[in-house]
Amino acid sequence: MLNRIKLAPQGPEFSRLICGYWRLLEWGMSPQKLLTFIEQHIELGITTADHADIYGDYACEKAFGDAIRLKPSLRQRMELVSKCGIATTAKPGNPIGHYITDRNHIVHSAEQSLSHLHTDYLDLLLIHRPDPLMDADEVSEAFVALHKSGKVRHFGVSNFTPAQFTLLQSRLPFSLVTNQVEISPIHQPAILDGTLDQCQQLRIKPMAWSCLGGGRLFSDSEFQPLRDELQSVAQEIGAETIEQVVFAWIMRLPSSPLPIIGSGKIERVSSALKAQSLVLNRQQWFRIRKAALGYDVP
Ligand code: NAP
């Protein structure tokens, strides 16, 4: 069974791996099929689901909610995460994509997510991307209002630099519980730019998105040396797939990131669980880093 982990000292408890629903519409599932998928990953111990208002051109949350509606009791067995703060051209009235972190927008977007997901609270709401026009006091006002009304239990950010995180935190009466960032062997900046150091310092756990490079890990020829090294390490540590090695490589980081799985195939989701029991030694970890970057440590 999958482990559970506290996101922060005062934060929620999530499953060690999370299911991400960005690509939900690509999976072409009926509400009944999706309900089965959700029940299957809950049975595996993956109880946390990652969403955002904009996923699927603002349609994924509703599709998920349509499945939950078929069995409302499932909500009590899950933790739901959503995000807001991006406005895309998919919405009429947005001739240009932009970021938006005004108080009213945050409150309205969270309320929309509740209605679409067919729930009356979110376990966690994130600001999706740093907004150059973000007024931290306004975001704080929105978060406090959503917290007071019981609509959102915890708050965090996504893709924030440590400075942006510190700014927002300085205005809040409660702790931000995560920074959701891209972490994978093929995208390593957060590992050394201070982002994960800040998480470790504050004892909060990052959430890791696109751990498999959105699938490019398997398809791009430039990653053949990485695939070869992952395969070698897989044999050494008894992993069945290179994905398991990637998830273990991410979980080996001392800030304990929670990988978000992007697959709609239950067998791939199920296979990822083995990663929690795989341990890479330092040399194996650095061999994967080197194979991805193409150069050794200085
Ligand atoms: P990912 O795991 O890097 O990529 C998932 C893609 O890889 C899917 O298309 C999947 O296809 C494919 N894949 C998985 N295993 C494969 C294999 N063995 N061979 C070939 N293809 C394979 O994750 P992601 O979807 O990019 O991101 C995961 C989640 O992170 C999202 O759902 C979202 O919740 C979150 N996210 C957050 C942000 C942010 O800014 N905060 C940004 C992006 C994503 P199948 O479905 O066919 O398995």
Give the structure's gist in a few sentences.
The protein is α/β, with parallel strands linked by helices and 298 residues long. The chain has 13 helices and twelve strands. The protein has an eight-stranded parallel β-barrel with strand order 3-4-5-8-9-10-11-12.
Short descriptors:
298 residues, eight-stranded parallel β-barrel, two-stranded antiparallel sheet, globular, binds NADP nicotinamide-adenine-dinucleotide phosphate
Describe this structure in words.
This protein is 41% helix and 14% strand. It is α/β, with parallel strands linked by helices. The chain has a domain at 13-177: Alpha-Beta Barrel (TIM Barrel). Helix 6 links the parallel strand 9 and strand 10 (179-182). Helix 3 packs parallel to helix 4 (103-117) and helix 10 packs antiparallel against helix 13 (282-293). The chain starts with a strand and ends in a 5-residue tail after the last helix. The model has no long low-confidence stretch (mean pLDDT 97). The site of NADP nicotinamide-adenine-dinucleotide phosphate (NAP) has 25 residues, from strand 12. NADP nicotinamide-adenine-dinucleotide phosphate is lined by residues 20-23, 50, 128, 158-159, 180, 209-215, 218, 243, 260-265, 268.
